[in-house]
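Friendly challenge for the regulars: who can give me the C-alpha cells for this chain first? No prize, just bragging rights.
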Amino acid sequence: MPDAAASPKAEPIATLSGNEPLFIVFNAGSGSDDAAETRRKIEQRLDEAGRAYTIFTVDRPKHLPQIAEMAVARARQANGVVVAVGGDGTLNAVAATVLPTGLPFGILPRGTFNYFGRTYGISRETDEAVASLLDARIEPVQVGLLDGRPFLVNASLGLYPQLLEDREVYKQMLGRRRWVALLSALVTLMRTPAQLTLELLSHGQHQVLRTPTLVVGNNSLQLEQIGIPEVAHLEEGRLVAMLAKPVGTLALYGLLLMGAMGRLGDASRVISFGFEALTVRVRGRRRIKVAMDGEIHWARTPLHFSVSPKRLQLLVPRDTSRLDRS
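First reply, four minutes later:
Bragging rights claimed.
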C-alpha cells in the first residue's frame, strides 16, 4: 500500500555553544551494568570537562514522566540540554517530553540492543558516549507517532508485544543479554499465535489482512539488519509497516531465522510498505496491547500511525571517527 512520494520538511538546525548546562534524567533501573558505577563515570567525565550538570535519578519507572518534565522545565529556564540515560523505553519517555519544546536532546544509552543510539553513532560505552555528548552537533531526527504518542524505534501490536513481555520475564531471571532475548523468542513462538484481522487505510487505499503481528518501523539500523528493503522510505519522511501472513510455529521460526540473516524482506510471507499516515482497525477489538520502543500499554482502536511534524533535536557525535553502529 505505497503512497505518493513525500519530501522531508526542512527545519532550521540549532547550534550549540558547547557550554549549555546538562539536565540528565538517569534511569537507575535500565541496562545490565551497575547503575552506581555508570553514574560515577558520568559525573567524573563531566567534572573533568568543567561542564555544568544536574542529575535527576529515576528509582521507579512510574516516576519517569514526572521527572522528565522537571528536567525539561529546568532546561527551558537555563537554555540547557536534556539528556536521557537508559534503554530505548527511557529514551522514548524523555524524548516525548522534550519533542514539543524543541530543546536539544542528548542520550547516554544503556539498553540491550541500543538501536536508537547506534543508528546515530552513539556508543553504549559510558565513557565514549559522554565524550561524544561533550563534542556534539545537532541533527534533527524523525519521530513516529501512534495516536499522537511518539516512538523512536518502532511501534507494534499482536505477536511482537507478546515477545517483548515474555522477553522481560526471561531477562528478570537470566539477565539483560542478547542471547536471553533469542531464547525467549524461541519459547514464545512455540505457542500458536493469535491471528488478527486488520483493516488498513492509507491515503484512500483500503486493505484487509490477517496477520499475527504488525510492526511499524522508524529505525534504519533495525530495518537494515533484518533486511527490509523499504528502509529508504525513512529518508523520505515516511514510516515502514511490516506484517506477516498467517503462519504456524515452524514458519515463524523460519521468519525469525531470515530476520537474523538480514533477509526478512525476501520472505514471501512478509508484507512491507512505506507510508506517511496509516489507520488500523482491529476487527473485534476495542482495545489492544501495543508496544512502543519496548514499553507496553493498552490503546483504543482504531490506531493512527503518522510521522511527527516536529523533529527531535538530537545531539550526535561531531567527530565521525567516534561513530559506532556495531
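The first helix runs from residue 35 to 49. The first strand starts at residue 22 and ends at 27. Your move, everyone else.
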